[in-house]
Specification:
The structure holds two protein chains of two kinds. By secondary structure, chain A is an all-alpha fold. Chain A has eight helices and no strands. Chain B is of the alpha+beta class. The longest helix of chain B has 21 residues. Classes of the chains: A mainly alpha, B alpha+beta.
């Protein structure tokens, strides 16, 4: 199978990640397109047999970070985020409805890690390679992201009683 | 039992712990309801992410993205040369993309059949979680739904005698209209797909033809207004036997 054919196999999953990462469908596909173009230029650097998926996600992550640094469009977060009130409640139905808005409120580096692990099902070690981070950083970031997401989705008004151990 | 760490709890929620450790974490959670509640929330977050975004996997691929891969390196790769023109998955806007593509002369459509089928095979057969839109447990609904969309009675051939079980199917969008894809898998997780579309241009019924597309074996034929293409990255002789079985069941 040619390298290009292998590339096309990964487009659906790159699109899923980009959609969740960038929020907006058009912006997400722009990110995928940039990633594919970058991948073609660098394709000779990728060795057949090694993990093409992780390599593509790494390229996409780097492009995403560069866009954020440049104050690019991805930085604007989700279009509708500001309009969607954060609801209380914990049922899965509510969770699905709110997850778009809740993701948009996460810092982008937390969003990336929770998506790579929870949605794309990369192992922690693979996620660390994609993000260019030590695995310990990935774990602490994942922990913060999940806690933050929970707070957002349960509503900030919930008063938490801290139990002192 | 070593101490249960925060990392263990995440690994438990993500289902990546070895069985032995999983049991230990379960014991810990039974005694620590706060941790159990947190883990349950994380699992629910994972489910919510899938419910919110997995549908993207079933969307037709935008032509621009296929072209992005195709544009710089033409030449010796038939699948790639064919891809931008054909992109079965993106063409008619049936599934939401309004890319109007003119229907082409019959001969060209027929020539495109194995290319389209191989491409659709390559895109969807590696998918682990969502290889199909409708699974085989709803086989009757699947066949009825796809028949309705194609406007023609379809049959999903039974390959159990050849060791392949029906996984399910999906609806794709081809340049000449909707396309049905049935997917099968054997005990070694090898997959074959049957690609079916209307060939309404009055093609005469044909015997088998065979093409090898970038490592994918494709057997294709036309019968009673439908074009069929069976694709799989497996041995040609075995593919031939499957195609023969499909032909006997469908076209008799």
């Amino acid at each position: 199978m040619s390298k290009q054919t292998e590339l096309i196999q990964h487009i659906p999953r790159l699109r899923r990640y980009a959609r969740a990462l960038a929020g907006d469908a058009a912006r997400a596909d722009d990110l995928v397109q940039d990633t594919l173009e970058r991948a073609l230029v660098k394709l000779d650097l990728w060795r057949p047999g090694s993990d093409l998926r992780a390599w593509l996600f790494t390229l996409m992550h780097n492009l995403f970070v560069n866009q954020i640094r440049a104050g690019g469009p991805v930085h604007c977060e989700l279009d509708e985020a500001a309009d969607v009130p954060v609801r209380g409640g914990q049922s899965d139905a509510l969770a699905v409805r709110d997850i778009h808005a809740a993701l948009a409120q996460l810092p982008s580096e937390q969003r990336a890690v929770i998506l790579l692990v929870g949605l794309e099902q990369f192992s922690y070690a693979e996620a660390a390679r994609v993000l260019g981070l030590p695995i310990g950083t990935v774990m602490s970031r994942l922990s913060r992201a999940r806690e933050r997401l929970r707070e957002i989705m349960e509503g900030r008004a919930v008063v938490k009683l801290q139990v002192v151990k | 039992m070593s101490e249960i760490t925060e990392d263990d709890l995440h690994a438990y929620a993500d289902g990546v712990l070895p069985a032995e450790r999983r049991v230990e974490v379960e014991a810990w959670l039974a005694a620590h309801p706060d941790d159990e509640a947190r883990v349950r929330v994380w699992q629910s977050q994972n489910r919510s992410l899938h419910e919110a975004f997995d549908s993207v996997l079933n969307e037709p691929l935008p032509l621009d993205l296929v072209r992005a891969v195709n544009v710089r390196r033409g030449g010796s790769r038939p699948l790639w040369r064919a891809a931008a023109a054909i992109m079965a998955l993106a063409a008619t806007g049936l599934l939401g993309y309004g890319v109007g593509v003119q229907s082409q002369p019959a001969a060209m459509e027929y020539a495109a059949l194995p290319h389209d089928a191989a491409l659709a095979h390559v895109v969807f057969s590696p998918e682990q979680r969502h290889p199909v839109e409708v699974d085989a447990q709803h086989a009757e609904h699947l066949v009825g739904w796809l028949s309705k969309r194609l406007g023609h009675d379809l049959h999903a051939p039974d390959f159990r005698a050849q060791g392949f079980e029906l996984l399910g199917g999906r609806l794709l969008s081809g340049q000449a209209g909707p396309v049905a894809q049935f997917m099968y898998q054997d005990g070694q997780a090898r997959r074959v797909t049957l690609y079916v579309r209307r060939d309404g241009a009055g093609q005469a019924a044909t015997g088998f033809r065979h093409l090898r597309e970038d490592g994918v074996e494709v057997f294709y034929w036309v019968d009673r207004d439908l074009g069929y293409a069976l694709s799989g990255a497996i041995d040609q002789a075995e593919m031939g036997r499957l195609a023969d079985a499909a032909y006997r069941q469908i076209s008799r």
